[in-house]
Structure formats: structure tokens, C-alpha cells
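User: Design a sequence. Structure:
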């Protein structure tokens, strides 16, 4: 059942999507509705009203919509679209006031996932990724999915960047949960940044020579845990950003950790996740660690 109210208490474990009327926000809504349907989660549609915007511009005529009315209209249209895309999903809307990034960060404290478009209204046309996506990724309490466009034809493959760091382990768990819900295969990609025969330089790259065996051992444990997921190892002698960007051309989703091994501890969003967000051709999920609660597994979720 749908509820269309203004302010509502956040629903624990909901897929939260931020909408602002932009083209990429509608793509984000479609992704979020599909994800909520596949994983049997509620959907929470949020529009953030910035407090410095006037209710009615001085130049507006008395018969024009107020800002509140425009916000309500947007949320109603978004809810209608969500019902068309995922009719069985419990949906709610919320109009909240504040700075966009801060309010969506607050939403992430109780969300399963927060979904945003790659560039909202008011963004510079030349930017691939707007400030909201960068501002959320790495700082949110939940995974953040940034959607520029939806894949035209689903390939049935999810790609996850993996380097054995704590964030990468969390990203792998999230990617496996997505693969289960989508009944998709999962490609685990590790970009080896140095020659296989070279000595391991201090602070450069996450794993020493022989990393293929170590990654194989770790993934064998995941195969035991998720026997129904086709899991493909892909180790390339290439920087992970171009490798993941290339893989994103045919993937339905790319998943990365917010920060890998060797990154600066003060940097919440590492160079790889930043690069993938800027260059990917499909939706990207950024997963941070540690999380306050375990990721929700969806082994019993039905596919719609």
C-alpha cells in the first residue's frame, strides 16, 4: 500500500531515492523501484527543499504554483511512476527541508541504500557527476548508488572491483546480494598495478606477488556461501579505473568500495571509486566500511 505524506519517519531498511525532476533523477527512481521490488524492500522517495529558495518569486503572478505546490506535484508524479514500475512495492514520499547532501546523508542512517542521479538540476552540463553523488559516496552510512543512465539491454552481469581491503570485502558482499536478487553472474575484477614478476613495492597495490592465489582462496569461500551465483575471477594487468570503466559498458551495475588499501585514511572517497564514478557507463554503487549493521541478504527474494 502506498502512503503519500509530506513528512514521515524514515522507514528502516528502505531503498531511498532522491528526486529533483532532472533526467538522471528519473533514471535513479527507476533503478530504485526495480531494486526495491527485487529485494522486497520499501521504497522511500525524497525531495529536498533548500531553505533559501523563496516560496513564490517576486516576479511570479498570483496564479502560479508556489514552491511547496511544485514540490508536492513532483513527489506525486514520482510516486505514480514508481507504482507503474514496481506496483507491489510499498512506497512513501517525503518533502524535507535543508541542504541536499546533509539531508540525504541523514536518510542513509536508516536506509538500506540511497540512490541519486549523476547530475541534478542546476548542475553544469559538462560535469559527468554532480556534487551530490560525490558528497554522498564515502560518507553515507549505507551504500550509495549513482545512476547516470540505465542499461538499455540487461547483460545479466554485475562487476565488482576487489582488492581485499575492508571496503572491497563489503562491496563484494553487496554485489553478491545484488547478484542473488537479480539472478545475475558476478565478475570480480582486480586491476594489478605492477608486473606480476616484480618485487612488491611498499605501499603500492594491495596484495604481493601471487595475489591470484590469494584472491582465488578468498573467492572460494564466497562460492561456498553463494552456490547459486556464477562467480568469475578477472585479474588484469591494468589500473582498476580503466578496467572497471571498460567493464561497465556491458554491465548492469558496477560496485566499488569507497576506499581501497594504500589509500589515505583521511580520504573517505578513494581515487578508484572517484574515477569509476566519473567514467562508468552504468549505475555505480559505492560501499563504505565499516557499517553499523550487516548488509541484508536476499536469498529468498523473488524476481519480478
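Assistant: Done.
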Amino acid at each position: 500500500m502506498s502512503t503519500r505524506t509530506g513528512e514521515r519517519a524514515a522507514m528502516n531498511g528502505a531503498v531511498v531515492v532522491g528526486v529533483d525532476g532532472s533526467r538522471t533523477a528519473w533514471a535513479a527512481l527507476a533503478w530504485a523501484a526495480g531494486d526495491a521490488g527485487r529485494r522486497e524492500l520499501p521504497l522511500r522517495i525524497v525531495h529536498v527543499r533548500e531553505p533559501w529558495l523563496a516560496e513564490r518569486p517576486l516576479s511570479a503572478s498570483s496564479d502560479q504554483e508556489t514552491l511547496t505546490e511544485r514540490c508536492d506535484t513532483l513527489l506525486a508524479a514520482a510516486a505514480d511512476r514508481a507504482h507503474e514500475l514496481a506496483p507491489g512495492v510499498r512506497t512513501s514520499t517525503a518533502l524535507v527541508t535543508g541542504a541536499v547532501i546533509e539531508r540525504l546523508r541523514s536518510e542513509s542512517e536508516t536506509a538500506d541504500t540511497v540512490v541519486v542521479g549523476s547530475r541534478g538540476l542546476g548542475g553544469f552540463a559538462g560535469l559527468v557527476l554532480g556534487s551530490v553523488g560525490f558528497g554522498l559516496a564515502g560518507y553515507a552510512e549505507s551504500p550509495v548508488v549513482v545512476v547516470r543512465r540505465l542499461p538499455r539491454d540487461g547483460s545479466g552481469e554485475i562487476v565488482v572491483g576487489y582488492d581485499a581491503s575492508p571496503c572491497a570485502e563489503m562491496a563484494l558482499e553487496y554485489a553478491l546480494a545484488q547478484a542473488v536478487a537479480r539472478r545475475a553472474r558476478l565478475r570480480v575484477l582486480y586491476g594489478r598495478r605492477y608486473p606480476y614478476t616484480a618485487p612488491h613495492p611498499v605501499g603500492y597495490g594491495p596484495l604481493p606477488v601471487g595475489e591470484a592465489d590469494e584472491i582465488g582462496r578468498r573467492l572460494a569461500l564466497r562460492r561456498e556461501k553463494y552456490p547459486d551465483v556464477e562467480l568469475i575471477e578477472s585479474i588484469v594487468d591494468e589500473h582498476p579505473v580503466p578496467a572497471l570503466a571498460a567493464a561497465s559498458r556491458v554491465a548492469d551495475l558496477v560496485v566499488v568500495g569507497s576506499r581501497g588499501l594504500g589509500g589515505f585514511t583521511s580520504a573517505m572517497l578513494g581515487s578508484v571509486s572517484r574515477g569509476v564514478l566519473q567514467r562508468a557507463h552504468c549505475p555505480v554503487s559505492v560501499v563504505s566500511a565499516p557499517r553499523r549493521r550487516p548488509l541484508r541478504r536476499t536469498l529468498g527474494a523473488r524476481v519480478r
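The first strand starts at residue 3 and ends at 4. The CA atoms of residues 27 and 149 lie 6 Å apart.
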